Amino acid sequence: MDVHSMSQTHHCSHAGDFSTGNPIGERATRIAVILTLVVMVAEITGGWYFGSMALLADGWHMSSHALALGLSVLAWRLSARFAHDPRFSFGAWRFEVLGGYTSALILLGVALLMAWESLARLSAPRPIHYDEAIAVAVVGLLTNLVCAWLLRDQHDHSHEHHAHADHEHADLNLRAAYLHVLADAATSVLAILALLAGRLWGADWLDPVIGIVGALLVGSWALGLQRQTGLVLLDAEMDAPVVEEIREVIAASPVPARIRDLHVWRIGKGQYACILGLELSGFGRVGAEYFRNRLRIHEELVHVTVELQHTEST
Questions:
Q1: Which residues lie closer than 8 Å to 178 by C-beta, 6 or more apart?
Q2: Is the overall model pTM greater than 0.90, yes or no?
Q3: pLDDT tens digit sequence for 253-287
Q4: DSSP letter string, 226-255
């Protein structure tokens, strides 16, 4: 057997093209930061003064979100600043993913703090000024709803031309910011319900219990976001739909080829790089460009390297 190996590489874009940014999301997040800071001060002050753990926990929650939203803005700025830096092989898009991952860690810390303080309030209750606390909580909820409306991900959803588009094309940094304000809105609703129950039926114990429920909810969302961003940072997405699509293209090719090596990783929102090693028996005149052309049907593959190993019988 004579084995002849040939490696060919195809570059579709330079590094800067992979970091598309999100100026609309960045502007909306800046506004959300300002609104969150204002209500954060009101809720922490009101919760402490009026004795509501649910309201105080929501204020602490918002303080972490103000920091996390600020991190989101910083991530977009860094991504844009280093977009054409030659040190980044595929652009600086992962600053945005790193911002989302950091936000998830902050969320987990807030969830633990909320649970700890709520348990302390269960064992040592404090008197609550219900009317004032409810008013502050309603203002917090309205602010969170405004922020959620600003951060809605309409742009990404408009590109859902595949069944899996929402997952692959999502801006993970914007998703992190959006989850933060949704978590705030949820804890605000829970705080209002707990305060209403305490005012109407004297269920003072419900206030710290709702704080614990809010902590569990926030922790659950944080773990989900941490897993999603962590997989991207670790290049652990070989179960992404595009991998199976590559295999299907090669299997359907009129030129028989066996996949001996396949690596796929994400380099942008809905953008993937691929290294594909193929073994061919015969078909000596078929080159790497033939298989690259067949893979162009999948637009998310923006950087493809094809290596061919031709095996011929003597």
A1: 148, 151, 152, 153
A2: no
A3: 988 899 999 999 988 777 899 999 999 876 667 88
A4: HHHHHHHHTT--TTSHHHHHHHHHHHT-SS
Give how far Cα 278 sits from Cα of 47, 98, 241, 244, 245, Å: 64, 34, 20, 15, 16
Confidence of residue 164 (pLDDT cuts 50, 70, 90): very low
Q: Closest Cα partner for 26 from 151, 147, 149?
A: 151
Model confidence pLDDT, tens digit, residues 200-243: 887 778 778 877 887 887 788 788 888 988 988 888 889 889 99
Question: Structure tokens of 177?
Answer: 């910011």
Half-sphere exposure of 199 (CA within 13 A, CB side): 16
Average pLDDT value for the chain: 76
The CA-atom distances, in angstroms, between 51 and each of 14, 121, 175, 182 are: 57, 10, 33, 24
Contact indicator for 20, 56 with CB cutoff of 8 Å: no
> Containing H/E element for 42?
helix 23-50
Burial readout 107-140 (b: 16 or more C-beta within 10 A, e: otherwise): bbebbeebbebbeebeeeeeebebebbbebbebb
- Structure tokens that stand for 43 in this block: 């809720």
Residue 202 carries which DSSP code? -
Tokens in use for 49? 């003064």
